[in-house]
Amino acid sequence: MPHPDSDALARAESLIALIPDYPQPGVLFRDIAPLLADGPALRATIDALVAPFAGGFDVVAGVEARGFLLAGAAAIASGVGLVPIRKAGKLPRPAAAVDYALEYATATIEMHDDIPAGARVLLIDDVLATGGTLAAARELVHRVGGEVVGITVLMELEDLGGRAVLGDPGLHAVFRA
After folding, report:
1. Is 43 an active-site residue?
2. Residue 82 exposure: Cα atoms within 13 Å on the Cβ side
3. Of 145, 124, 144, 147, whose CA–CA distance to 134 is shortest?
4. Given 13, 64, 93, 103, which residue is catalytic?
5. Mutual orientation of helices 39-50 and 6-14 as an angle, nearest 10°?
6. Considering 13, 30, 66, 138, which one is annotated as catalytic?
7. 66 catalytic, yes or no?
């Protein structure tokens, strides 16, 4: 897996559009659609997502929804399979579900058990914010018999404390904000 150069990553990061007050006032949304639409930028970020874990995983698990896009590309680039982690009620035969806290409510994510016991799983999402979704996704992988060997995200929102919640010293973020 090639390592993207810093110029390619800087260009990729510059394509992330900042949308103030979306989806609610006071939130600065990071829209990765322009990055996804640019082939060289997408390739550079996929390479950067996977590079620290190259050769050390059997399957990629992507968290709904934007994490699917990155995880699918990472799985293809790495020559491994893909397992989706979905919001509750979206899978026809969920094998495991985990509830987790949101700011004012709870949510549930689910996954199938299509991976063999002991499979080494690279967990991918687009953004690490408070860490709740990725902590729940890691628990899901364990419940279906997989071993999370790495967590990688496109962007970490450092002020929201997700890294501390996950407590994973190997956590990798391509970009930080």
Report:
1. no
2. 20
3. 124
4. 103
5. 120
6. 66
7. yes
